Amino acid sequence: MTSIAAPYNVDPAETTFRELVRLIRVLHGNGEGLCVFLGAGCSLSSSNEDLSTVGVVRRYLTERIPQVDYSIRSSEENYRDFVNSWLNLGTSDRNDILARYIPHDLEPSVGYINLARLAGAGYIKAIITTNFDNLLDKALQRYGIDYVLHCSNVPATNPSGKPAILTLAKVHGGLHQCALAFSPDDLEQLPRGVAQLVRRLSSRALLVVGYSGQDRGIMKALSSSSEHTAFWASPTQPARADRARSDRIFTWLEKRVPKGSTFLYGPKYGIFDSLMEGLFEHLNSGGAPPVGSSHFR
To answer: Hey, how many other C-beta atoms are within 10 angstroms of the C-beta on 204?
Structure first.
């Protein structure tokens, strides 16, 4: 009598994760590497405060007019009031005020630590981030990663002065590094040089994590070439029915991955910290140089 194997229910996100790991290994073997795009969600676990744009805007407005409960107002109303105040400030004043809500002494989470370790092992060659904080800078510098920094549209710098193994692009600016992008005009259209840089870096194999896809300027700049695969990680799987939140994501991914699905989602694969930890563990077990973390807090 022929036995029939029981059906094996495979988690689609796990299958996608394993495809990502395999692709990264192949790229590494060819002397190439991944580009990682980081959104605001990647920094949330590094602070007890809400570092998202919504959270920063609320605290900014509450400090200005504490009598108003901004938590019960719509995000659209809060953002409008924020921009009307923000645009009155000088560029240096904007940095000083925003620094009140993004403390300089924040420590990198396990996600940033493992991202730096992956870059040090040569698996990641470029990082694009919309975040203003210095968490990624700290992780890279503590691990001794030499990188070229592109901050908004100012000339590129090399913090260590040594040959760089990584390109870091802060497309919306960085605290006390370059101008901060917060206004509708800033988010609608990236400066030409920044858009070109984003398109070039994102044309390689790409992983997007912690990003909602709501910035029109970013989504227009991301490469839509199908030559290299793109993966999109989020806590929950984007739904086509939620068009307000997901239309830009599906429109872009259908150009980038026209005949497949490369979504990573859920607590294991859709959260920045757990995803980076999982990637490092799988890639390190596959022959990457062992890396310690004693110099990280």
So the answer is: 19
Closest CA to 118 of 297, 272, 227: 272
Residues 63 and 171 both lie in one domain: no
Q: 203 with 16: CB under 8 angstroms?
A: no
Q: Examine the domain organization and report whether 87 and 119 are in the same domain.
A: no
Task: Report residue 131 CA to chain centroid gap.
Answer: 8
Q: 263: domain CATH number?
A: 3.40.50.1220
pLDDT in tens, 220-252: 999 999 999 999 999 998 888 887 788 889 999
d(C-alpha 111, C-alpha 117), whole Å: 10
DSSP sequence for 124-166: EEEEEE---SSHHHHHHHHTT--EEEEETTSPPB-SS-SPPSE
Whether 290 is in a domain gets the answer no
Sign of CA dihedral 6, 12, 16, 21: negative
Residues of the chain with pLDDT below 50 are: 6, 286-297
Rounded to two decimals, the pTM is 0.88
Cβ contact 287:129 at 8 Å? no
Q: Which residues lie below 8 Å from residue 193, measured CB to CB, with a gap of 6+?
A: 153
Phi, psi for residue 12 in degrees, rounded to 5: -55, -35
Amino acid at 154: V
Q: Which residues pair with 157 in a beta bridge?
A: 149
